[in-house]
């Protein structure tokens, strides 16, 4: 009887895993693509994530909530990828961490949403690779995956305040880069117009 109950529990866990795969596979893939900008690598990472979790389930461990567990496993795999690539400069990261984020009131959810509303989303995604991974990670979790600071805190094992600060700094960096890009494009347009006017005078 006990053996049958154990088998039933195992079958139930496996069924929940399959449901989780159907429900979260696409979202995890989008998350991985945004984080590493490599479609093939993203496919591999998501596959490895589900493989690890499946192995965990098959060993009889119970997972209460699959979504945070899957994101946590994927996040760890992505971090391992970053470490291997060594893409981020520690010195550059420390310089940016020293940026003054202003008063703590600015870190409230409403203030963050207001700041995000001032940013062109399409341009922001185009420039996402130009900011340090530590900020890219939380911005993707917040605005692509729709996770709140508390959920992100649980996934990354960082304090909620730290997450909020990183979101705020990441948004500020993106806005600065968008403004710089717009200024550069404007200067190019003006230069082209001056050249065109000069060419007409020469003719």
Task: Describe this structure as you would to a colleague.
With 203 residues, this protein is an all-alpha fold. It folds into two domains: 1-86, Rna Polymerase Sigma Factor, Chain: A; 88-203, Winged helix-like DNA-binding domain superfamily/Winged helix DNA-binding domain (Arc Repressor Mutant, subunit A, Orthogonal Bundle), CATH 1.10.10.10. The protein is built from nine helices and no strands. It is elongated and about 85 Å long. The model is unreliable at 1-5 and 86-105 (pLDDT under 50).
- Which whole number gives the mean pLDDT? 75
CATH superfamily of the largest domain: Winged helix-like DNA-binding domain superfamily/Winged helix DNA-binding domain
The class by helix and strand makeup works out as mainly alpha
CATH class of the largest domain: Mainly Alpha
Q: Which architecture of the largest domain would the CATH scheme give at its second level? A: Orthogonal Bundle
Count of discrete domains = 2
Distance between the termini: 97 Å
Percent range for β-strand residues: under 5%
Separate helix tally: 9
- CA radius of gyration is 22 Å
Order of helices and strands: HHHHHHHHH
Largest sheet: none
CATH fold node name of the largest domain:
Arc Repressor Mutant, subunit A
Tell me the overall shape: elongated
**Unreliable runs, pLDDT <50, ≥5 residues?**
1-5, 86-105
Share in helix: over 70%
Number of strands: 0
List keywords for this structure.
203 residues; mainly alpha; Rna Polymerase Sigma Factor, Chain: A; Arc Repressor Mutant, subunit A
């Amino acid at each position: 009887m006990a053996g049958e109950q154990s088998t039933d529990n195992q079958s139930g866990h496996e069924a929940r895993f399959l449901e989780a795969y159907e429900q979260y596979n696409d979202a995890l893939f989008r998350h991985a693509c945004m984080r590493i900008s490599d479609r093939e690598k993203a496919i591999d990472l998501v596959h490895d994530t589900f493989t690890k979790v499946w192995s965990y389930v098959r060993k009889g461990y119970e997972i209460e909530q699959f979504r945070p567990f899957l994101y946590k496993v994927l996040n760890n795999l992505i971090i391992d990828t970053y470490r291997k690539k060594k893409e981020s400069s520690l010195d550059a990261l420390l310089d940016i961490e020293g940026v003054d984020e202003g008063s703590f009131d600015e870190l409230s959810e409403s203030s963050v949403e207001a700041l995000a509303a001032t940013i062109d989303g399409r341009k922001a995604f185009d420039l996402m690779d130009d900011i340090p991974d530590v900020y890219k990670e939380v911005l993707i979790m917040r605005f692509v995956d729709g996770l709140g600071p508390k959920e992100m805190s649980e996934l990354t094992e960082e304090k909620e305040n730290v997450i909020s600060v990183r979101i705020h700094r990441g948004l500020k960096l993106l806005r600065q880069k968008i403004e710089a890009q717009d200024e550069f494009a404007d200067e190019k347009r003006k230069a082209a117009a001056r050249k065109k006017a000069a060419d007409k005078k020469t003719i």
